[in-house]
Amino acid sequence: MTVLNREWYQTIARRRSRRLYEVRPVAPATLEQLNRSCREFKPFPEVRAVLVPALEEEVFRGILGDYGKIKGAPAFIAFLGEAESPYLYERVGYLGEGVILEATRLGLDTCWVGGFFRPEVAARLVGMRPGEKVVAVTPVGYATCRWSAEEKLMTGFGRNHQRKPLVELATGLDQSCWPNWVKVAMEAARLAPSAMNRQPWRFEVGKNTITVAVDNLHDTYNIPKRLDCGIAMLHLELGALAAGVTGIWEFLPSPRVARFIC
């Protein structure tokens, strides 16, 4: 399953980052479907996703005490890869967002956690291989109906997507000249989640290409911006696919991240 699931595009608008969960288990059949996605969606050989069907609270830690802490989720997924891979973070972001959108498709809630978790605990639970690094994790379960003030603050948008307009994010080909597939792909990429909603991606639109780059080289919240950009890459490709266009990714040195070529 190295190809994208076309249904993931439909989940982009529904996905929200949730930190408070109901204390109830996920149905075994649903967990198995998600686990199969973790095993089979392998767009890059050096990164992988591992589902742990029993949450150990020590995996997560808050920013200050219990502030921002994940609470109540019955399972979690770890996203990890070879520590020396030159494109580790963007590839983990791309892979992980695919798995997270699959969880959303299955009716589950999630939350990217890239900076405030205990990687040594996650590594022990997933059976990390020599040379690997746990980059990020997500809780998996059913979120409470109530949104806490912490969730709204940390996601940056609560129940409504708050994103920068494309005019602030895109350069290159004038928007009036964008073909339909570019419009759909860019809107999907714009809705990608990022740490504290920082939206660090920038896009350069060419005739048959879209190049993803970071806004600057200063990482914040102890989370690499290239991880966020990998998430946006997945959204971008899903949007292009929904508009009938396929392509390939060419990875690039910093501050650029990758170029989508159709």
TrEMBL record:
<dbReference type="InterPro" id="IPR029478">
    <property type="entry name" value="TM1586_NiRdase"/>
</dbReference>
<dbReference type="Pfam" id="PF14512">
    <property type="entry name" value="TM1586_NiRdase"/>
</dbReference>
<protein>
    <submittedName>
        <fullName>Nitroreductase</fullName>
    </submittedName>
</protein>
<dbReference type="InterPro" id="IPR050627">
    <property type="entry name" value="Nitroreductase/BluB"/>
</dbReference>
<dbReference type="InterPro" id="IPR000415">
    <property type="entry name" value="Nitroreductase-like"/>
</dbReference>
<feature type="domain" description="Putative nitroreductase TM1586">
    <location>
        <begin position="9"/>
        <end position="240"/>
    </location>
</feature>
<dbReference type="GO" id="GO:0016491">
    <property type="term" value="F:oxidoreductase activity"/>
</dbReference>
